[in-house]
Specification:
heterodimer, A: mainly alpha, two-stranded antiparallel sheet, 10 helices, elongated, B: mainly alpha, 2 domains, 13 helices
Chain lengths: 273, 276
């Protein structure tokens, strides 16, 4: 954050405003332009500050009313970059204003890729996994713990992302891309995610068969015991992998859900579980 | 039922709509909504239990790039409300929550495409005219409109549907109820499969099985598993970083280091490795 020294007081104030406004990115989300209105709304403090001329102001508003869609915690980073480019554009006559939207659209795809798997696939899963195991034992703190685990890191990323984007500008992010650092971070995050999903598959997918054979009124063979000796949780693991296989075969999720409901009722009808 | 209908509808607006207003802060998840509905209806304990089991079911259902299977928020709010007013816990909430969640997604999509979608050109026009105030007004106005309409769904559903639902729940035979309980245990498999689709990679999929056996055999709590996972990930990331630095060095000076083809390259790799 050493570069923060050349950000003026006014700019800091505007950046904070942008950080708060960015929460509403998808408030009026439309199919055609996704978070366009939210992006434009977040950029307004800068647009008002940098452009006094009405024509330039309108151009800037139109520029930021363009299609925008990314993982929301990373949106402030892109906004920061866009704001720093608007500043450059307002000062430098030779600056190509089209490059602002070009940078926006070149960043939102890749950042959404990392963001979706990190924030939705890993952080949310960790938070939900911990909260569900608390909630299943009736602990009423579960929702609070869930919201804190997810939101504290997320909001920090949003806050610092705003300033980081503004100070580093667009050249730095290209460097990070070329260095392959993004790839390493994505892989590391996915590893945590996979471990958690594995653990949750064991903890949350539940199946116990009631089949047993009895001789002279004494039960001599319990199928579940035998299954457990082969591999604990073999049925839940098998069903999860089967669902995963079917999803990859492009079977719709709704079919899968109804399939599992149907299977469960059959298991009950035939007294298997 | 009027009180229940109003309060559940307000909770849906505040959580499902609130998540969109406050930047996807996860207010709309079952683990949050279940306890909230429980609190409003005077049975927070059941609310937490139902919220937790529905969260397990809907864990993989997350809106990524607009593709989703159900809307877990409405499903949880209405399912929990009926389970608490009729009695019966998660066993009653689950069979109600799934169809309601699918219906909820249809309505949400309809509002998104058929109502709010028409404002996109209006936003463009306002921007071209430089009318900032009106943009801000419409930005929030669209939210009020969308979620006000969506909030009618639980309101009408609870007010009009409670007799029908009550009769329906009472008419479910025991063998089906038992089946639905089994289903509550198996459905999280679908959610886990959806998460796997997001994370699966040929190079690292073994970690899924590591997580599984650590919990199945060693009974590690998930908090410990998360920390362990982080340690493994940091270690691997450090090694990957070193490797990428090495490759960069090799690529930077290939002419001097590798006159003898592959064998020469191997040598420099080793030397660099020991230099580190």
């Amino acid at each position: 954050m050493s570069k923060m020294t050349n950000v003026s007081k006014d700019e800091k104030k505007m950046l904070r405003k942008m950080f708060w406004r960015a929460f509403t990115l998808y408030t009026a989300v439309t199919p055609a332009k996704q978070g366009a209105s939210g992006f434009c709304y977040s950029m307004m403090p800068f647009i008002d500050h940098f452009y006094k001329d009405a024509k330039q102001k309108k151009d800037a508003l139109v520029r930021h009313m363009a299609y925008f869609n990314t993982t929301i915690p990373l949106s402030t980073f892109i906004m920061g970059i866009a704001a720093s480019m608007e500043k450059e554009n307002s000062k430098n006559k030779d600056f190509d204003a089209n490059s602002i939207n070009a940078i926006k659209s070149s960043l939102m795809g890749p950042l959404a890729g990392i963001g979706d798997s990190f924030f939705w696939g890993v952080l949310r899963v960790i938070a939900a996994g911990i909260a569900v195991s608390m909630g299943q034992s009736g602990n009423i703190l579960a929702p609070i713990v869930f919201l804190l685990i997810f939101n504290i890191p997320t909001i920090l990323v949003r806050y610092y992302g705003t300033f980081l984007g503004y100070t580093l500008g667009s050249t730095y992010i290209e460097k990070i891309y070329q260095s392959g650092l993004i790839h390493i971070l994505t892989k590391a995050a996915s590893i945590v995610g996979l471990i958690m999903v594995g653990g949750m598959t064991s903890q949350m997918v539940k199946f116990t068969t009631t089949i047993s054979m009895s001789m002279k009124g004494e039960s001599v063979l319990k199928l579940q015991g035998m299954l457990d000796q082969i591999f604990v949780g073999i049925v839940p693991l098998g069903i999860t992998l089967l669902c995963f296989y079917l999803l990859n075969k492009k079977v719709s999720i709704n079919y899968l859900i109804f399939g599992v409901i149907g299977l469960s009722i059959l298991l009950s009808v035939f007294h298997i579980a | 039922m009027l009180y229940e209908a109003i309060i559940v509808s307000l909770i849906v607006i505040a959580t499902v709509g609130g998540a969109e207003l406050l930047g996807m802060t996860m207010l709309n998840r079952p683990i949050v909504i279940g306890p909230l509905v429980g609190l409003a209806l005077g049975d927070i304990q059941s609310g937490v239990l139902i919220g937790a089991s529905l969260e397990a079911v809907f864990m993989g259902v997350v809106n990524i790039g607009g593709a989703s299977a159900a809307e877990p928020g409405l499903a949880t709010a209405v399912g929990t409300a009926f389970a608490i007013t009729l009695g019966g816990g998660a066993g009653v909430a689950l069979p109600l929550a799934i169809p309601i969640g699918i219906l909820g997604l249809q309505v949400k999509t309809l509002l998104y495409v058929g109502v709010i979608g028409f404002f996109a050109p209006v936003f463009d026009r306002l921007a071209a005219e430089g009318k900032e105030r009106k943009i801000v007004l419409l930005h929030y106005g669209a939210w009020v409109l969308q979620w006000g309409l969506y909030g009618l769904l639980p309101f009408i559903g609870i007010l009009a549907g409670s007799d029908a639902i009550n009769a329906f729940v009472k008419a479910i035979p025991q063998v089906i109820m038992n089946g639905l309980n089994i289903c509550g245990g198996l459905l999280p498999a679908v959610g886990m499969a959806m998460l796997l689709k997001l994370l699966w990679d040929k190079k690292i999929y073994a970690f899924f099985f590591l997580g599984f056996i650590l919990v199945a055999y060693l009974k590690l709590p998930l908090v410990a598993l998360a920390v362990l996972g982080a340690i493994i990930a940091v270690t691997i990331a450090q090694r990957d970083y070193q490797l990428s630095q090495l490759t960069k060095k090799m690529n930077a000076a290939p002419a001097t280091a590798a006159p003898a083809g592959n064998a020469g390259q191997m040598d420099t790799e080793e030397e660099d490795f020991f230099d580190e």
